[in-house]
Amino acid sequence: MTTMSSNEKLLPNGTTGYKLTKEDFAQINRRNLIGFQAGWNYERMQHSGYLWIILPQLRKIYGDNTEGLKTAARTHCAPFFNTSNFLNTIITGIDLAIEEEEGLQSLETVASLKTGLMGPLASIGDSIFGSLLPTIFGALAANMAIAGNPLGIFIWIAVNIVVDWFRCKQTHIAYDQGMKLVTTMSDQLNAITDAATVMGVFMVGALVSTNVGIVISAPIDLGGVTVDLQHICNMICPKLVPAALVGAVYWLLGRKGMTSTKAIFIVLIVAIVLGGLGWIAKG
């Protein structure tokens, strides 16, 4: 691997001027297929895996053991990152194309793009590749196996080979499109980033309403009249209770010393206690 020491000359944008090759893409794809999820954790989920798959290329772009490399690595490790492992290299390709061209000046833009794109790509990738294809072809392969037809296993293997090929191919496509963003669409880059961020917010709202299931089940007796508090909340705003829960967790995460792991335990303990008392139930 070609690297450079911290005392060698860099371009004004903090890069070496290195351009990615086919060997770089092959290395990225190998690392992505094998170890992208290996560093997953509750704190920042896929951030360390994302950095690991592109670290050799960052060394070539910014030089080895340089302040630019350290800044780029810290930037990629700083934010929470979690998306579909079937479409994550779309972000990777765009990211590397922009960093290769603009260097350290692009890190804020790259961070915004990662944040904005991870939500929409997660919903699309997990729906198609994580649910739809396994359901269709898994059921087909299983039924053929039950019938004693060994062809089912080969269909299942073939589908997974095609999916992995697509995961590798999209890295090249995203990189080429990323170069176009830098060279011909630079004026529209901020608008694309803002649009992706708004879409991500919409996806979070949709996930809250569909995946956070909690209702108030505590009976309230006022002068002999039983009040259905959950019904009142629904009249004010459907899914108000799940939204309030997510808002409370968001507030917790903003407190000093609070981490996502601590917040998870707090929610678990409170849910067990309130559920045991019969005050809340699964929606």
TrEMBL record:
GO biological process per UniProt: phosphoenolpyruvate-dependent sugar phosphotransferase system
Domain of life: Bacteria
CC terms in the record's Gene Ontology section: plasma membrane
Keywords: Membrane, Transmembrane, Transmembrane helix
InterPro entries, alphabetized: GatZ_KbaZ_carbometab (IPR050303), PTS_IID_man (IPR004704)
Transmembrane parts of this sequence: 151-168, 189-209, 229-251, 263-281
Protein name in UniProt: PTS fructose transporter subunit IID
